[in-house]
Amino acid sequence: MNFEIQILGSGSAIPTKDRSLTAQIITAYKEPYLIDCGEGTQLQMRRFDVKFSKIKHIFISHLHGDHFFGLFGLISTYNLLGRKSTLNIYAHKELEDMLLCENSPLKIDELVFDIKFHHLSDEEKIIYENNNLIVKSFPLNHRIKTCGFLFQQKVRQPNIIKEKITEFNLSIQQILDLKAGKDIEIDNKLFPNNELTNSPPAPKSYAYCSDTAYFENIIPIIQNTDLLFHEATFSEKDAMNAEKTGHSTASDAANIAQKANVKQLLIGHFSTRYPNLNYLLKEAQNIFPNTILTEDGLVIEIS
Amino acid sequence: MNFEIQILGSGSAIPTKDRSLTAQIITAYKEPYLIDCGEGTQLQMRRFDVKFSKIKHIFISHLHGDHFFGLFGLISTYNLLGRKSTLNIYAHKELEDMLLCENSPLKIDELVFDIKFHHLSDEEKIIYENNNLIVKSFPLNHRIKTCGFLFQQKVRQPNIIKEKITEFNLSIQQILDLKAGKDIEIDNKLFPNNELTNSPPAPKSYAYCSDTAYFENIIPIIQNTDLLFHEATFSEKDAMNAEKTGHSTASDAANIAQKANVKQLLIGHFSTRYPNLNYLLKEAQNIFPNTILTEDGLVIEIS
Lengths: 303, 303
Hints:
The structure is a homodimer of 303-residue chains.
Chain A: E1 3-9, E2 23-28, E3 31-35, H1 41-47, E4 57-59, H2 70-80, E5 87-91, H3 93-100, E6 115-119, E7 125-129, E8 133-139, E9 147-153, E10 159-160, H4 162-168, H5 172-179, E11 184-186, E12 189-191, H6 193-196, E13 197-198, E14 205-209, H7 219-222, E15 227-231, H8 239-245, H9 250-259, E16 264-268, H10 278-287, E17 291-293, E18 299-301
Parallel strand pairs in A: 3-4, 4-5, 5-6, 14-15, 15-16, 16-17
Antiparallel strand pairs in A: 1-2, 1-18, 2-3, 7-8, 8-9, 9-14, 10-13, 11-12
């Protein structure tokens, strides 16, 4: 398991018995990352046995309450549990202003651990990077400033075929050159890289787009993504509501998925008005067949 | 059912799978009142089918997050549902400052309904009253300003025995005098009130004391209460922790119950360190036998 998505909350702004508020865990190379943190996220993490003390990075798409009200309680719990490591929060600047102001719900300066705020901007931008992973934020089109997130595994180095190392008695420099993708010379003969190496698995990617109206600007950014989460608050028959509130219909989500040539589409953030979500699912599948519905607790491995 | 308590969250500051954060519904004469509103309260209300749109009065004991972080989401949901009636919030002034400040998590001035803030003081005080009910707040002893709440049914008027109205052809004035508890004269003969009336049922009462250290000042206020909820975060073997954090042990709660001569004691707000709460229950029952443990969803009718 290198890349896994777990849905903690699949509802929209009003929670129901079955659908909690927006939050997702992305696990990449055993590191969990949290996207959005609606009210009750820490309760859902308990419910689904997420090891939440391991989370070091939290990404908040926008400052509507259903996407961040759970931060207050989660931070309080980290504090009571004596957290030591720095918590990185990627959000619009207003969240830092809220948490650091005199009347903040939390006394940040009394916490036993540090919070580092990273501000989202209105341009596509790499906001986090480690040896294996890049996270980009990019603007969506909602009623307030909102960002989507793209999690991309880095292109891994080619694996050198073990037998070739001994066969050609490869030097460390030759190995490094092969790892860097270069062709190498052995005894004055040029060997193409792919004769001595196996290609690494293709890097995986996950895009998170919520909340947003239909917004074609994101298509080049999420092009060819393995899995796209795109909100589908409404059905096409309520397209007027979607337009008025800066949300998408299931058809909108499917059209984006199709135009961006993603491999799979995951829709969620459903309005409470639809008792039967298969209606939304079929609407999306008519345009983009490889679509599935989110539900609380759902785990999807990108393999 | 005139007076009923429902526990929505029975845990202390760190929620668990089974115990959500503090919140209780008091239903008196079909009107629901909410005491405290920890994170996830609106989710628990959905879970236990509480008609939460009917709540007009919310009482917040103190401003530690596990007692009020759920307010943000609940208010947002009321707003999305188009609430019309004013929401009364009884809390320390700092909550109003938090919600009305520039960097508030909520845009209070954009809500579609009004919120009326009522400030708790550091003296015993009637904070709400209607035809049937009085609610008093009174100071507890915690690390920050904290109030307990006493819900008391009003003493009801005597019921006039129907047959007596026709037998003596009672005038409206005579009926009013009887209702007011007076004896009346009929044909120059004095009739004691209790010959013409039935006594109403004794008024019921419920006291809520959380969070607090052992604090004897509350005893005269909650004297003879039918049901006392008293926090019991710790066991007596962790009394040092209780003292350090301004909390009570199960023994503390039971001693208060005994000295205040209440009819029944309900303990809750348990630290997560106790895997078996029967240990706390027995500790309390050794001092005050009529003690029960809270659990999420528990309903107790005071009859």
